[in-house]
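quick one, 549 residues, struct below
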Amino acid sequence: MKKKLLALALTAAMCASLAACGGSSSGEATSAAGGETTTAAAGGEGTEAQTQAEEAGDPVKGGTLTISLSASPSKLDPIHYTGTYESQIIKEVCDTLIEYNSQLSDYEPCLATEWSVSDDGTQYVFKIREGVKFHPGQYQDGRELTADDIAYSLNRSGELSDSNRLSMLEKAEVTGDFEVTCTLKSPNSSFLTALTDAGNAIVPKEEVEGWGEEFGNHLVGTGPFIMESFALDQEAILQKNADYWMTEPYIDTLVFKVITDSTQAANALQTGEVDIAMDLKGESVDTVRNNADLTLMETPGLHVAYLYFNMEKGPTADPKVRKALIEAVNVDEMVAALYKYGEAQGAKLSLPPGSWGYDASLEEKVPGYDPEDAKALLAEAGYGDGLTLDLYISDTEVRQNMAVLIQAYWAQVGVTLNIHANEWGTFSEVAMSNNADVFGMSWTWYPDPYFFLNKLFATEEFGGIGNGQHYSRAEVDDLLQKALEATDQNDRADYYKQALAIITDDLPGLFYANENVIYGVSGRVHDFIQRSDGTVKIVTPENNVWVSE
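---
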């Protein structure tokens, strides 16, 4: 009977959540999908040469590409960004020193043409590409990039980044006309990967200091697209940089449009309001899959969805409470309810299986579904008469659906859960503050375990969104540091597996799903490459996206 009642509660909660998601975001999607963008997408007179090129399958220049984002970006200054929604825009406006290739298997030159490493692994010397120009802005007219800009941007990130994205950097200094030397605090095997991150993008000092706190709203870089406008909770409009050093983009206008409801994003894709719908979930996956004019692009992501418990204060500082909260949830049942169309696999650990530091033998350490033991543990912890917790999430559809399911599960063991859903900027502030009992989000990055384990569990990450709940264990910090200093990947993997074992025993959160990267793509989009880290790249050495009208 209890199982039947729980199923009914979960079904009712899911329906209520879906209704709330649709109602709250419909107005935003309608206003964001204004006629101007649609007109621009179809605008322009096509020439006979263009028509012939399209029929032959050859790239053509021009047109607008519109991409939906499932949450609203809020901080476009590289040192302040906290989510992939922001990095998608930053990566099109700005360049980094080096880049990952589309397979995430190797580094390739970007603003640096080559680099070398000292024998002790603490100094990196970069040769800087000549002839690169910044976009014209309010405080400079599109001047040439210099080595000073590289040093300035990296030092700024190392000192001021909200998420400690370059915390290993001691200093970056100009050592030649087009040469920069980076000195690390200690050997760090993740440094090159960190340089590919949007948080370490290169920006001009004049624009940063001229705009001050408003710089993110007027972002300037050297990338393939120039930011024309940014409207919070609505859209960012970018225009092509015809003088881009790599090659001229085929796309004239690139629009990132905020559509937080996955169903609405799929509908917008069908009607032509957007050309790429990102982060598809639920029924929208089938909507795209069953439309012959659209392509569903799906690949296992380097991704973990989780609930992170406050490790320092409140009820969840008690490991008995954490274990009870984990045991109260039937993860397999929840994942099946959340991802009815195969959008994810159930997870166990805080590292995705696609990372080379993953250790499947640790999965058995995670407590299984046992609501009776959960009740007993809560009673032992002094909460036999009940417990109230606050859960903070972003306002995306999948997180809201997850929250109401968790609410129903925890209610079965006497836990009352208050759900607080906010747009990404507000949510991320709470997640970084260590003031939430529990927050729910997902983490996706590169295959290197550093970008999961160090960012989520190193003590030095206090204040960042990764370790906003203040997990701290000296043994883990030591192992994570050893992994950074080791040069052999097998040794690094061993250190990370040891750290992962301790983290798993400490029960810092409920890691419940490894979501796939799922996009819907219009048939008018060509040469688009999907990456397992979810990053959209319009112009790279491997591709230059174009659209047919």
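The domain at 2-21+301-516 is CATH 3.10.105.10 (Dipeptide-binding Protein; domain 3).
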